[in-house]
């Protein structure tokens, strides 16, 4: 480009910028160009471009990419209906499934016109070349494993280590599996519209390299009539399946329609639309391995059976309103998707049967999972082990031990109608057995979901138990990474939850027995009166070194010991606190409707619906929360730790130090596409 042409282009861009900063009077308002300014994409990563605005129709629009006029794939010019999917009062124009191959900054410019005038907007997006800086002999990461401890901050990890191994004379007596990874760093956790992320963009930033609004996964925010029509961004699993043929595995202790598993494979602007979420898992899995579209999903394990059963089946949650009848034609064409199945998004779909038809073996219990994977594992595996969320580790362990928790009259897993559930490490083992068949490699996400959920509910003992279960799954991942080679394992969280804090240990004459015998102080509300329960918290010297008895199954014999770890919650809501293990959990939100509420299956058995209603009439004292109108503790903006491990190369070094959450995607993709310096000892042994 000549100096004259550069000057002309700069002048044109300046004119456009001035127009965007000072639009004409009565021009259309709320005009947006997506991706938003500052977005980052990998070279050749697919994404949608959308121009939308609110105003008075008819609407028209134009789009330039680096000064060249581009053609929309949908949006009729000079009409009030435009693309047919924009919300009332909005016009929208889309370019679906595009990509940019050249690294550097690219400028998108759009004009949006309605009956009152024209507004011009610009967006500068950056394209990252995964091969930039790659020199010498490199060894590729073939398999990527993301271990996601939902809501897990530093204090969760510390508490789990103290409970599992104890401390002697100031030194930990052992380290968690995740603590033994060589690479350690910090990750910021903000979303596109807040310093406080929820789990949807909190996970999706790792798998797309882009920020999204809270509640949204794999899509940019847009005003459309159905959340599944929003403009998409290609996931890590989709990109690698397309270019390398990798498979995808998703393992979670949550309902699988939940944000974290879905933010690896599902494109939606509403994380709660479960019917469409689970349908998209299958319909965009590329079951024939064409590599023309989709994620290559081959393993899906967790809870959420309610979404897979026809609406006429007891405990089903499927509804037409949480699905979608069909995707827009240009979205299907732009992303090379197959035609929408006849019952996509419909309440009557039998999705379990459709998974089976697509070649998935199905398990509904731990026993069935073992039977499927004890010999030669299947090529594809679906496991749904509860109607909603699976139960937490301590409640599953109680049933396996045959020991009812103190104060309980029945096993929690029985009350949830899921008496035979696998542990997370057992699910992880099954997933690795299946995915190890896939010679082109795989992406596997394993989530410890209830670290977050029990922190929300301010149930410290269950949250710690979840971290212990998660760490056992980390050990499984490391074992398989060593066995398979060329595998990178990351342990991290999407955000911190509840302001989880180790404030001390039980320090009360008579220990846990004395604590149990303290009278209820839930009516003691005056700041001038200190409840005896509050005085039971030993800080500094009084905290000492708690010592838990760990049984062969890897979990404490009991969480209620004389010197037990005590936890405070900096992002708390109202609750009653006794410092004792709760015999039953608070009712999960991700359950079929008949389970929930005070008169539901669980409420009728005495389960509390919110933390404030637990222990009201039992030992404890009232703690006023910081949060007005919140029934649970909330997420925080705290940075979270990342631990990295790799076999075959030194990819783990990429994650040392401080980084943005979106950086994780680009580092993983560079490891998979361009590789890293080989790990010398392993390289020599294999050659």
Largest sheet: 10 strands, mixed
CATH topology of the largest domain: Alkaline Phosphatase, subunit A
- Using the alpha-carbon principal axes, give the shape: globular
CATH class identity of the largest domain: Alpha Beta
Oligomer: single chain
Query: How many structural domains does the protein architecture include?
Result: 2
Strand content: 15-25%
What is the count of β-strands? 27
For the CA atoms, what is the radius of gyration?
26 Å
CATH superfamily of the largest domain: Alkaline Phosphatase, subunit A
Number of helices: 18
Helix percentage = 10-25%
Strand order of the largest sheet: 15-16-14-13-17-9-18-26-12-27
What would you call the structural class?
Answer: alpha/beta
The CATH architecture of the largest domain can be named as 3-Layer(aba) Sandwich
Output the keywords.
687 residues, alpha/beta, Alkaline Phosphatase, subunit A
Detailed description of the structure:
- By secondary structure, the protein is an alpha/beta fold.
- The chain has 2 domains: 3-128, Sandwich (Immunoglobulin-like); 143-219 and 228-499 and 636-686, Alkaline Phosphatase, subunit A (3-Layer(aba) Sandwich), CATH 3.40.720.
- It is 25% helix and 21% strand.
- The chain is built from 18 helices and 27 strands.
- Strands 15-16-14-13-17-9-18-26-12-27 form a 10-stranded mixed sheet, sandwiched between helices. A 5-stranded mixed sheet has the order 2-8-7-4-5, covered by helices on one side.
- β15 (361-363), α9 and β16 form a beta-alpha-beta unit.
- α3 packs parallel to α17, α12 runs parallel beside α14 and α13 (450-456) runs antiparallel to α14.
- The radius of gyration is 26 Å and the shape is globular.
- The protein starts with a helix and ends with a helix.
- Mean pLDDT is 93; it is low at 1-24 and 682-687.
